[in-house]
Write a structure and sequence with these properties.
The protein is mostly beta strands and 230 residues long. 10% of the residues lie in helices and 47% in strands. The strands form five sheets. Strands 7-13-12-9-10 form a five-stranded mixed β-sheet, with no helix packed on it. Strands 14-4-16-17 form a four-stranded antiparallel β-sheet, with no helix packed on it. The longest helix has 20 residues. It starts with a helix and ends with a strand. The protein binds copper (II) ion. The site of copper (II) ion has 6 residues, from loops. Copper (II) ion binds next to loops.
Amino acid sequence: MRKVLGAFTALALALGAAAFIGLPGATAQGGGTIEAEVKYNGTPQVEKLKINKDTEKCGTEAVIEKVVVGGNKGLAYVVVSVPGAKGSGKAVKATIDQHGCKFVPHVLAMNPGDLELKNSDDILHNIHTYSTANPSINKAQPKFKKIMTEKLEKPEYVKLTCDVHSWMLGWVAVTPGPAAVTDSNGVAKIENVPAGKQTVEVWHETLGKQTKDVEVKAGQTTKVSFEMKK
Ligand SMILES: [Cu+2]
């Protein structure tokens, strides 16, 4: 019996090693990759605001990134998610920082669970969320409180502000399935999406939401493109 168990363990270890180094056929859960490209045909909307509060940490100018358009008309800060692929992939610890009196990143995608809020500014901030599915949060985060953890357990696009610094604005997308946020070229990649028919949802803070159906194939990249309109 011991010998059989030993052989079984050796086989399990070998399989584990194959998965680890990514041999063909060892793709996690037989999933595929979705690569979404989001474009915007309008003009970027980035506002600059003079500030005179906590200037030693915040600087004297705040940049409000409403519509950020990069190379090739790519739209940044779009949340791309696959709501139907619930429970796939592994949960990652979601962290948002308050740095230079800005929420960093400006848009964060996470699965339902804990959101870690960091204060690396050494000044008082205040976490104020405008949520409806999740309980609304309105809590001071003094400079000595470097990290706070809050629960966001229901899928929702949550607006995040600070009552101390009126210009501070961030978004937390709590998505049931895997998600990613587009980069400055308007591209986001989601890996390990279960093969089969999936609906891809894109959401932007001022331009709204769109969906498209795609067919995901194991071990392959499925490309999908969106154009957001005003
Ligand atoms: Cu603040």
